[in-house]
Every structure is written in structure tokens, then in C-alpha cells.
Amino acid sequence: MFIDFTKVTCHSGNGGAGRISFRREKFVPKGGPDGGNGGRGGNIVFIVDANLYTLQDVRYNRIYKAHSGEPGGKSQKTGKNGADLFIRVPPGTIIKDSENDKVLVDLIDNGDTYIACRGGIGGKGNVHFKSATNQTPRFAQPGMPGEKSIFNLELKVLADVGLVGLPNAGKSTLLSRITSATPKIADYPFTTLQPYLGIVKVGDFRSFVMADIPGIIEGAHDGKGLGLQFLKHIERNRLLLILIDSQNENPLNTLKLLREELYSYNPSLEEKPYIIVRSKFDLIANDESVKKWPTAIGDFIDISAVTGYGIDNLIRLIDKKLNEN
Ligand SMILES: Nc1nc2c(ncn2[C@@H]2O[C@H](COP(=O)(O)OP(=O)(O)OP(=O)(O)O)[C@@H](O)[C@H]2O)c(=O)[nH]1
Ligand SMILES: [Mg+2]
User: In whole angstroms, what is the distance from residue 218 CA to residue 255 CA?
Assistant: First the structure.
């Protein structure tokens, strides 16, 4: 179970100002007040979109601002309301008040909405302030300001596939190649410090969620490196991809080490189905001497997240395994 998390600042729109105006017609030179009300500011509304699986599209720390209402017009015309601003979130998103972390709403079904910030109401035009003692009010209300709030969004995601490997094995590069996720990629260990999720599309109708976690090193189950705190995330994945760098000099040892870390952490992980992936195949494609891996490793699939080699095959294989389990 992953927690996808993001934080956003929302401003609903300000109300439009009420208008000060007087009727001026050919035969009514001194008409009464006729200033209309301002329009309401736009609301900020969260809406569930069942086509989304992660909070990736709701960028961290983004500021959302809805439009203000328009000012009132002459002839008692009310200003246009500011358009509501919809923020699309996946089903299962929990919206919390960032000040006290209290749950405001748990958005579950497609189309469910939650008005997070209400637009300010429009000010009243001067037509409303006419009284027995003041037939020509020269004032109108300003619009009410919109609301501003910061929200924490949380989503618990059950990823289908978990990426497991030593630091630098190319896990994040693979995720970024086949999903729209944008994890940081670099040629030093522990680039990834937190889990990332992405959706892999298989053809037009099927998809699965893939999770990238920080690299695992020897002793991870004892808390070494960053692995431990993230191993819990892969307990519920249906399938693991064990990525081993094509330049690894002792792939069999690495495979053993990774598997040992997994089941030392949780013995039930030993039963978890996995696919072995040899990453960075482009680096050895022309090098027959290193192409052979010990048969004890068993079946594996070659990919290059850089050139795309083997990627379609891998996606098909994953899809097949997920559907047979
Ligand atoms: N040539 C080549 N380089 C690759 C390939 N995949 C990844 N790399 C490089 O390998 C380095 C590590 O890649 P990452 O994707 O950050 O590795 P990681 O497994 O996510 O690493 P951690 O987050 O530290 O665990 C980067 O410099 C990548 O550019 C590949 O298919 N071919
Ligand atoms: Mg990484």
C-alpha cells in the first residue's frame, strides 16, 4: 500500500463589486439608483475522475486560483459569477486541512465533488441601498474576498507491480520510460528517496500501477540504507520486478541478496511472484562475453530503458503474469 501525497494551496475567487449607477434615460433625467450586484467568485472544487490513479497531476505545492466575479452593471444587471475551478483527483482521495491534518472529506466515487473554498459573494449594487431618507445612495458593497486554504491530499494506492533493485539499477529510469511519472534519475545511489507511482497502459483498455521505491542494499531489512521503511510498500504488490544492472559482475549474488532482504523483512515475500529484468542492456548489447549470465539465475528479460529495447516485451509479460495470478 502506497500513500501518494500532495499539498495544494487554493484561493477561491473574490466576489465582484456592487455597482453605483443611476438611471439616465431621455425622459428620466434624474432616475433612481440602478447599480446591480457583483457576481460570486468561482469556487474551488475537487472532483473525482475514475481515469486517474495517482495524484501526479496535482502537482506538489501548486497554487490554484479561481476567477473573481464580475462587478455589477447598470440597469440592475448582476455581474457574471467567476467560473468554478475543478481539481481532478483519483477515486479514494482523502482531503485534509493542512493546518490540523483533519480529514475534511473522503472522495470515493467517480464524479463526487467537494467544494473546498467557496467564492466570495458579490457586493450589493446601490439599487439596494435606496431608502426613504436616501433616494440617491452613492455607495455599493464591495465583493467579499474569496477563501484561501491549504490542503493535504492523500491517496492509498495498491500498486500492482513493485520495482526492486540495488541503488542505481535503473528502476526510476524504467518507470519514467513507461509511465508519465517523473522520478529523479541520476548516476549515484539513493537518488530515489520516496516511492513513486506510475500507470502503465497496456493497449487501449488495460493498465497497471507500477511503484518505484528506493534501492535496497544488504541489511535493508535491518534498517540499512533506505530500503526498510519502503519494503512495507511492496508487501501488497502482486508482482515484483527485480532489476539487475547488466554491468553487475555478480548478478547471482545480487539476486540472492535482494531476495534475502525481502524475505528477512517478511517471510511471505518469498512466495511473491517476480520477474528478473536485466537493465541497461544497451551497455552490453555488443559484448558477447558479458551477455551470458549463470543459468542458476533462471529466466530473465533484457531491457534498455534508454533505447527502449525489450520494453514492449516486458510490459506484455507483466500484463500476462498479472492476469494469470
Ligand atoms: N545506458 C543506460 N543507462 C541507464 C539505463 N537505465 C538507467 N540508466 C542510468 O543509470 C543511472 C541510475 O538510474 P536510476 O534510474 O536513477 O536508478 P535507480 O535504480 O532508480 O537508483 P536509486 O533511486 O538510487 O535506487 C542513471 O545514470 C541512468 O541514466 C539504460 O537502460 N541504459
Ligand atoms: Mg531511483
Answer: 11
Task: Name the residue of 179, 185, 309 to mutate for ligand 1: max ligand atoms within 8 A of Cβ.
Answer: 185
Query: Which structural domain range is residue 319 located in?
Result: 158-324
Cα(264) to ligand 1 centroid in Å equals: 26
Q: Same domain for 173 and 124?
A: no
Q: Is the pTM of this model over 0.85?
A: no
**Mean per-residue pLDDT pooled into runs of 10, the chain (325 residues):** 83 98 80 94 96 82 94 96 96 94 94 97 96 92 97 88 94 92 81 81 87 85 71 83 95 95 88 95 85 91 96 96 85
Distance, CA of 11 to CA of 18 (rounded, Å)? 21
Residues 6+ apart with CB under 8 A from 104: 95, 96, 97, 114, 116, 151
168 ligand 1 Cβ < 6 A: yes
Please report, for the domain that includes residue 293, its CATH number: 3.40.50.300
Asked if residue 189 has its Cβ within 6 Å of ligand 1, the reply is: yes
Nearest ligand to the C-alpha atom of residue 243: 1
How far is the centre of ligand 1, averaged over its atoms, from the C-alpha of 316 (Å)? 22
- Is residue 304 within 6 Å of ligand 1 at its C-beta? yes
Among 270, 257, 265, which Cα is nearest to 165's? 257
